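for the writeup, i need someone to sanity check this before i put it in the appendix. the sequnce is what the collaborator sent (i think, or maybe the updated version? ugh). structure was predicted straight from it, no edits. if anything looks off just tell me and ill rerun, i have time this weekend
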Amino acid sequence: MSFEKYISDSVNNNALTDKSWIDLPVLKKHLMSCSIPNEKIEEWKYFNTSKIQKGTWKTSQRISKEYSSVEDTNLKNSILLINGIFQYSNLSEDIGIKIYNISNYLEENPSIKNTIFKNPNKYSEKRISGKIDNNTTAFLSLNALLNKGVVIEVAENNIVKEKINLINIIQDNNLLINPYTLIICKTGSSLNIVDTTKYEGDNNWINPCIEGYLDDHANLSMLSIQSKTKENITTSSLNFHLSEKAKLNMFVLNRENTKSDIRIFLKKKSSEANINGILISSEKKQSDIFCKIEHHSKDCKSQQNWRLLSADSSTTSVKGKILVKKNSKGSDGKFYSRSLIIGDGASSFSKPELEIFEDEVSCSHGAAFGEIDKNLIFYMQSRGISKNEAIKIVITAFINEIVSNDEEMLEIYMSEMQDFFEENIL
């Protein structure tokens, strides 16, 4: 089924009337009037969406088989989704976390209806000309129409010491999958979550959305990773809203055929966001991130630190935007990226952008590009290290720059990168 036919069938689906929290007329109008994002849109300049346009997507999402991985099913403190649909949680009752579907959560918390994504204007881009560009949120509107969401709520002043595993298993082929996760961290709470997508099926389009709300003094650490992506394509959206003295630490591993749109809103004073990420691509594939952090209040801090690794004839790209609004004195925003190219046909792009509408702020940006130092490789070979092993050492050091302070994080990153080494280095 073509994308246009898929959209037409989706917006005329009678089952959507059960989703009382969405602005159905607005979303329908938006999807029927906008086009698939393409290179003409600044945020999508380096990500090819032709596969989405030409793809044949199934309209039904089903669980083809019971997931039985001993490694995952025995993993402590886990929330399991299959094809974006919540299956079960083995969280202990005393951990202070509640899991809901959206309908049940709204019954207990009707005010949350105003925070769930339901209108394309919420994350649309305001251009310098003053025009509101809703094409950037086309896939978000599609997610809102079709998702079967899950809500993760952390109780007030609850410090969750254990790591929580959010695992999404992609089965079958040629599906459009729309996972939606809403994370609510109540005042004074703390959560450490690992969001992992694993692929059993192939040629799927995964279109996830995560929204997070951190109340005053809340802390959220999040690691978002993908196992080997095969020929699946991912267009993810991660959006976080921070209140007074809230803090977000995010680590992202962006693999091939993946476009991630990250938006952070520092809404109240002294809120802070630290975003670290590694983008990896090989063959003729692409790995792309757009990350925008908005400073809305005084003394807010943000930092973006990226490492881009391009092999073969692939492309990695990151656009990091820092927006400092009026009444945000004392804001501190930083962006830095480094790119390592290990293929003659590989390329990498980095574009920092600052929009500052307040004085007495500190903002900086920088980007560096390079290839593997052949003299360094030769030196290690002269010391008895094979060429392939020397290249692995250089790449590992390149990655360690942003994850070496966290042994657990480094172990996860290196485990997920092993297949990259096997296919491109060994």
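The CA atoms of residues 224 and 351 lie 22 Å apart. The chain has nine helices and 23 strands.
thx in advance!!
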